[in-house]
Amino acid sequence: MTPLARCMDVTVRYGRSESSTALAGVNLTVAEDELLALVGRSGSGKTTLLHVLGGLIAPTSGTIEASTERIGFVFQTPNLFPHLTALENVSFAAGLPESGDGLSPAELLELVGLTDKASTLPEELSGGEAQRVAIARALAKSPLLLLCDEPTGHLDSDTGERVLDLIEALRREVGFALVLATHDLDVAARMDREVELRDGRVARRAIHA
Predict the structure, then answer these.
(1) pTM
(2) E-assigned strand segments in the chain
(3) Are strands 61-66 and 3-13 parallel, antiparallel or unpaired?
(4) I need a labelling partner for 206 at 20 to 30 A (CA). Which of 11, 86, 99, 114 fits?
(5) Where are the alpha helices (DSSP H) in 46-150?
(6) Facing residues of 65 across strands?
(7) Are 181 and 153 in contact (CB under 8 A)?
(8) Cα 118 to Cα 129: distance, rounded to the nearest angstrom
(9) What angle (nearest 5°) sits at the alpha carbon of residue 189, between those of residues 200 and 139?
(10) Is 190 helix (H, G, I), strand (E, B) or coil?
């Protein structure tokens, strides 16, 4: 399969001491159309690795190969603009210069089942609805790679399951590779393979049947 992103011997330090090392010599390849789970305890380096893959932070050393123009993000909390409606939040992302020629903001809201919430402000949305708006916003750039950082972490189990079902359905319909960071092994089991991080290093790799 064609690689979409690759980390080669990537190290990230936030200071000069070894204790400030968030990633230490990580090697990882994300292939086209795959489902990859990053697992590990809080502080293991999952979020840092997602940020490196997405070009949000630069590694202290090592090499990153990825096209950041075609990468979307879904974070643990939706982080919607509170003064913008659901449609306006998606439209803002769609209007960014690097966005692709994909679905319109209205079509993206329809895709996540929120056409009736287009004029609703974030404070009037449920947690699950707000996260669905965030997913629609992440798809506004027509990403080849979607990075999700604990996207169900602040949701109850039923709502979390529905959000994961939606992400997987959108992947089948729209087409993108997915890298999802989670501490929940049940969530990880839904992916094609998983990579466990421990203290900033790759501790285990597993392929799911």
Answers:
(1) 0.91
(2) 3-13, 21-31, 35-39, 61-66, 71-74, 145-149, 177-182, 193-198, 201-207
(3) antiparallel
(4) 11
(5) 46-53, 86-94, 105-111, 127-138
(6) 6
(7) no
(8) 11
(9) 80
(10) coil
Structure tokens at 3: 């690689």
Q: For 197, what's the count of Cα atoms within 13 Å in the CB-facing half-sphere?
A: 28
Distance CA 16, CA 31 (A): 33
Rg (CA), the chain: 17
The mean pLDDT values, 10 residues at a time, for the chain of 209 residues are 88 80 95 93 94 93 87 93 96 66 86 96 96 94 92 88 92 91 91 95 91
Q: Tokens for 189?
A: 């089991």
- Owner of token pair 């707000």: 130
Burial of 65 (0-12, 13-18, 19+ CB in 10 A): exposed
Close Cβ partners of 169 (under 8 Å, ≥ 6 residues apart): none
Q: Which pair of structure tokens corresponds to residue 59? A: 């590694």
User: Percentages helix, strand, coil for the chain, rounded to the nearest 5?
Assistant: 35, 30, 35
Structure-block tokens of residue 24: 């230490």
Burial bucket for residue 173 (CB in 10 Å: 0-12, 13-18, 19+) = exposed
Strands (E), 32-165: 35-39, 61-66, 71-74, 145-149
